[in-house]
Design brief:
Layout lengths: L1 E10 L7 E11 L4 E6 L5 H9 L6 E6 L2 E2 L5 H4 L3 E4 L13 H11 L9 H13 L18 H13 L5 E5 L7 H18 L3 E4 L3 H6 L3 E6 L2 E7 H5 L3 H23 L1
Parallel strand pairs: 3-8, 3-9, 6-7, 7-8
Antiparallel strand pairs: 1-2, 1-4, 4-5, 9-10
Helix pairs in contact: 3-5, 5-6
The protein binds adenosine-5'-triphosphate (ATP) and magnesium ion (MG).
The site of magnesium ion has 3 residues, from helix 1.
């Protein structure tokens, strides 16, 4: 259902900062698949999500959702189909709007809400969703998003991104900036929602255990390429040690390449 065909993206081409962030990405993600993405800093993980969401347009290659080409469609157009959660809790919500206004906005974005005759009915719907996370958000509907804690704000973003069954859910290290306790709670509820709703999901993580524990497929990126793609039985039988070994192998290869260039 999501297809990336030979996607390339280079930033700041022709300058001293030129970076080939994606170099020939081919990826086919069937409906209801949940892919975890790992890779070192600068490997191209966030750029991959940005290309899918339309925040960044590819130089070359195609992005297709359900067979329709989206490659050059604007971000706002794709927002109807794509739920997104960023590493930074400040990015997912509008700070000067209340919790309820933010949720209503998500509702509109996904073209929902017409069956809610009354504001009261809608409020009860929101409260039920928020109560599930047990962070007290259900009694904060009229509070501005800017007054919430990082964890509460991230929960709000996750609710906004998943409430109306996006075609694709993109999670970019959603709990990396939160303290461990809240992080665990939010990760658990996120995983529950993904399972219940069978959402097609791509989640970037730096945590090797998370990468293997969640989802049904793991890809590893390095310098703009997908260098490992494991699923099924093979994935069930590998450990975090295996992934770490792959990383150190890469570093050795890079080191050898650098030496060659300097020689
Ligand atoms: N908008 C941009 N302008 C210029 N360079 C960019 C831009 N976005 C990303 N890059 C560069 O592209 C490369 C890939 O970046 P990307 O953010 O995709 O990496 P990442 O795998 O998400 O890394 P991290 O683990 O640090 O989040 C990096 O070298 C980064 O500096
Ligand atoms: Mg990133």
């Amino acid at each position: 259902m999501l297809q990336l065909e030979n996607v390339y993206k280079c930033f700041a081409r022709g300058t001293s900062h030129e970076t080939e962030a994606l170099r020939g990405i081919n990826l086919n993600i069937p409906k209801e698949d949940f892919v975890t993405v790992i890779g070192s800093n600068g490997a191209g993980k966030s750029t991959l999500l940005n290309i899918i969401a339309g925040t960044v347009l590819p130089d070359k290659g195609k992005v297709k959702i359900d067979g329709c080409e989206f490659s050059n469609k604007a971000e706002y157009f794709r927002a109807r189909f794509i739920g997104r959660v960023f590493q930074d809790p400040l990015l997912g919500t509008a700070p000067s709007m209340t919790v309820e206004e933010n949720l209503s906005l998500a509702m509109k974005r996904f073209g929902r809400g017409l069956h809610f005759g009354l504001n009261k009915q809608r409020r009860v719907f929101f409260q039920e969703k928020l109560a599930r996370v047990e962070l007290g958000l259900e009694s904060m509907l009229s509070k501005k998003a800017s007054s919430l804690s990082g964890g509460q704000r991230q929960v709000l973003t996750i609710m906004m991104a998943t409430m109306f069954d996006p075609k694709i859910l993109l999670l970019d290290e959603p709990t990396a900036s939160l303290d461990p306790e809240i992080s665990k709670k939010i990760q658990l509820i996120t995983q529950e929602i993904i399972k219940e709703r069978r959402l097609t999901t791509i989640m970037v993580t730096h945590n090797m255990q998370e990468a293997l524990r969640y989802g049904n497929r793991t890809i590893m990126m390095d310098r703009g390429r997908i260098i490992l793609d494991i699923a099924g039985k093979k994935r069930e039988n590998i450990s975090t040690d295996y992934l770490i070994k792959q990383f150190s192998k890469l570093r050795k290869e890079e080191f050898a390449e650098d030496k060659l260039m300097l020689a």
